[in-house]
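Continuing from the previous page of notes. For each protein in this section, the sequence appears first, followed by its structure tokens. Read the first protein now.
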Amino acid sequence: MARLPTAFVLACTVLAILPDSPAAQEAPPDRAAAESMLRALADSGFSGVVLVGRDSTILWSGAYGRSVATGSSFWIASITKSFTAATILELARGHRLSLDDSLPRFFPHLPADKRAITIRELLTHSAGLGATYSGGGIAGRDHAVAAILSQPLIYAPGEGYQYGDDDFELLAAIVEVVTGRPWSQSVQHLILGPANLEATGFWCPAPGTALRPVAGPEGRSAPCVPDDWGHKGANGMRSTAVDLWRWSLALRGGGALDPATR
């Protein structure tokens, strides 16, 4: 197996969910064998948290490698997108927006070729935006939105697929326009609070927020820039293995979204 870059593995939380099948129920995981493998990986540079669970029960979890504990908080990178998507869906459920709304409802001044883009296309990376990361390093929502929408489309909206952060930075901006509050506050109010994800938060927590430092090199060296739109909507959150386990359960029917929305 190729060795992963240390900067990557230190920043990752590994989450394992066993299938809800009779075979899985009859064959519990071999913890000793798994831990032996994980210790060997740690000797080769892996550092992270592993959690194994079935249904709503955590079977075991452990921290492996250096500078981590089972409760360590990690930068969760693009898993952030799942929280932004859930926030958008909650706003749609409350009839504060529609997934078929197009961008002019939220941004009155935008290039003509972007006017047909819908929220649904942003959610599914089918809006025609390239992976330009144009919002990165920009402070201020309007400037970030303008930078993203100034880039040329790589295909007509709805006629292709391109994964990237640009779509979800625009979704974070839409959340702010609709709610009148920062994206992070809306995620906290609509998603994190109701799901009881107390150890999940944001790359730059609000003053007075009791979140432990982020594990791995990001927590030690990366600057915290609260208004950097490169960290809004697409990749600007932190969490723990246990909270990601709880989030997975919530998305599988544990109350994060109503059944029709899910």
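Done with the first. The second protein uses the same format. Note its length before scrolling.
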Amino acid sequence: MLVAATSPVASARVVAWVWTQARRLRTSLHVDGIDAIDAIDPSPAVAARHRATVAGACKLTGATCLVRSALLQRWDADHGVNRPLVVGVARDPEAGVSAHAWLEGERHADFEELLRRPPPKVAGHSGAGNALT
């Protein structure tokens, strides 16, 4: 069942999903490395317009750029939008080396791409292709 985009219940489901998955992913990344991203659970079956709720909840949970990008990648894939996740590094003579993760098409500073992960393959998410999405 798809919950309407304006529903506070839908927003609560999205925030609960982000909180649970972000917490689990942070721990799993230390153990399983980048492959931990493959274990992200499907997003709740709500309208795709809740993507901003996902991004906002990531900020509230203190998600790293990698966790944020992985959750948004899964959200997008579940709603029919396939975007690769990119990891890159930049070298600053004063600050040293820094790393960053983003989804293809997002604005980012001048990072040299090191890794590109394709979107997850999802099977018939109930939110994808629905008239409310």
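What the second structure shows: The helical segments are 8-32, 51-61, 65-78. The beta strands are 85-92, 96-103, 112-117. We return to this in next week's lecture.
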